[in-house]
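Good morning C.,

I know you're traveling, so I'll keep this short. The sequence:
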Amino acid sequence: MNFGLSESQRILKDNARKFFAAECPSAEVRRLMETETAYDEALYKKMAEQGFTGIIFPEEYGGLGLGMVEAAALLEEMGRANLPGPYFSTVFMAGTAIDAAGSDAQKKKYLTPIAEGSKRSTLALLEKNGSWDPDSWTLVGGSALTGEKWFVPDAGVADFIVVATRGGLYVVDAKAKGLKVEFMPGMDMTRRLYKLTFDATPAEELAAGPKARGALDRSMQLATAALTAEMAGGMQRVTDLAVEYVKTRKQFGKPVGQYQAVQHQCADMHLATECTRSAAIYAGWALTEGAPDAAAAVSVAKSYASDAFREVGNKGVQVQGGMGFTWENDVHLYYRRAKGSEIAFGDGTYHREKLAKLVVDPLD
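The tokens, ready to paste straight into the viewer:
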């Protein structure tokens, strides 16, 4: 593959950067994170008009039919802007699950409004134990669900919710009888988390058995690769903020950026960002092309990015000294996102264990 973006992909990336610079600057991010849901309907509508909400979905369901490399280019700019709200949970969590598991009629019913931007959704995965392994979940599927899901992103603004259980994938109307949605405080103030309690809540089955597990695996891989690309964008912004600061902050009569120790910190941040970007683009390409190493590529990207974004955040704070700890400095917003993204869809340890199984199992 060509590790560089094509001309059309670069145009998409450049236009996305201009869009978010105009529509979602830092001041807007701070305004939204102080609201109850971190969601702005007008901004989401503008994103839909740009085609962002349908980027990877088939044209027959209102999408653009593009691949994950194009999505990675877009998501990097979203990460750079620290975009708040339910875009990621709607498109790359719920949307990919419906696309992988739903029938044609269900895709027209649920995926088309997602692609068009008229409906928002999310995917309920985790339970109280916080495990990403479906075999550890206790919620059992059926026409009525009873149980709990924890740490569900953006459920407070969802029109419907895709629920993953041990036995299948289901869709639940956000206003369904027996569904209770409770806010859960989290570190990342731009992404709200919720606890869902189901009490004989009516549910529509998308898929069950092996088909559901295969669809969930596919959705998780796409979402993980997408998140890694978003993390690369956040890392780039933290690096840019640090470099801008050390060029102007003076100590002993000269900019601190002239000191080798500070330069080393910035160089490490740049290296981590470039490696994450390359890994994310390759993972996206491998998933789009159905490469045999796609699963391994996703785990390589996420295991690296989980550790790298945390370290870039640490260094971004350190090179700015006392200023790096202030509320007015934007670095802490990205550090919060880094900590949330680090464990989402499995942290570095989780994905290194997956890689080990991919290597060892074929030898058994």
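Safe travels,
E.
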